[in-house]
Specification:
101 residues, alpha/beta, four-stranded mixed β-sheet
Amino acid sequence: MPTCNIITNVPGNSVDNSDILKALSRAVASSVGKPEQWVMCSLTTDKPMIYGGVEAPCAYGELMSIGAIGGEKNKQISAAIASVLQQKLSVDPGRFYIKVI
């Protein structure tokens, strides 16, 4: 089961959690190549964070999956998740780090 956890310093009262989670779920399923029914996503907002010495919007993520990850696939997964974070949270892709397990 692919599991994606995102932590961000973006204020929770400024975002639609359901909309973001649905977009993340679709992006993970599509990029990993597994049915969305097996994808789990979580979003933690309001986390005090700093990236590169600046407190502008940023995010950290972890994606865990058995199979369907590694090498070039990780780049596709990262790009898909970064796109959602940019569109929904205004987090610049250069201020997002993901750990793929």
